[in-house]
Amino acid sequence: MTKHYSISQEVFDKFPGFCRGVVVAIGLTNGAAPADLTAALREAEAALPSILNIDTILENPKISNWREAYRSIGIKPTEFRPSVEALARRVLRGESLPSISTLVDIGSLVTIRHLLPTGAHAIDHLKGDIELRFANGNETFEPFGTDIVEHPAPGEIIFTDGDIVMTRRWTWRQAKHSLVVPETTAVEVNLDGLPPFTQTDVETICAEVAGLLEKYCGGTSRFEVLTKDHPVMDLI
Fold it and tell me: Where does this protein have coiled-coil stretches (predicted)?
């Protein structure tokens, strides 16, 4: 049975300029990152201070756009930093991002290289259709690294498999449910574009991600960009 991926119209009503690139890849091998991928990640880290300064990071529109979006739906960005800001701050403090696996490192590379939130979810064992939508508060979330079950606040933007939350606060934290592990053979990769990113920008970066996945993980990849005019796609 075909599973679908959608973004609710309410999200686009609130953020009409938002688009989400979705790269779907199957038949993957997710081992340790090869040396040239790790080298590319280190190069992106080394280049970041030339385009982003930790003292003025909030002035960059690719960072401030997410803070403004979070505030507009009642999320305090100082308490729950958008993933792209959190990752950039680590690099600007001089921390080398750990090499976790090929799939995870590709996401880190693309995020730092473009300052675009990028996150991979394993889709080997999905229970149903998946959706980016506003929470009703009854959904469950088990964050990585703990056995505590949380419930999102009503009105929070969440990424879900039915009522199982895969990511809280839009781009903030991923759950155990769809965590990418060494055994993962199929993923979908989200690339979240708010202005100043355009749909064309996101399409270009999706093509880059698809190429990286096929180069380093094998398998086959395809992508679509979900927008207010194209909010649903076939997943698997």
Answer: none
- Spell out the residues 6+ positions from residue 167 whose beta carbon is closer than 8 angstroms to its own: 119, 121, 158, 159, 173, 174, 175
pLDDT one-digit tens code per residue, 53-102: 999 999 999 999 999 999 999 999 999 999 999 999 999 999 999 999 99
CA 7 to CA 204: how far, in whole Å? Answer: 21
Distances, alpha carbon 130 to alpha carbons 8, 40, 163, in Å: 11, 32, 9
| Nearest to 141, CA basis, from 156, 122, 123, 129 | 156
Closest CA to 66 of 169, 138, 137: 169
Which burial class, exposed, middle or buried, applies to 100 when counting CB atoms under 10 A from its CB (0-12, 13-18, 19+)? middle
Element (H, E) at 92: helix 83-92
DSSP structural state of residue 50:
G
| Total residue length of the chain | 236
As a whole number of angstroms, the distance between CA 196 and CA 101 comes to 30
Burial of 208 (0-12, 13-18, 19+ CB in 10 A): middle
Reported CATH class of domain 4-234 = alpha beta
DSSP lists the bridge partners of residue 143 as 175
Report domain extents, the chain. 4-234
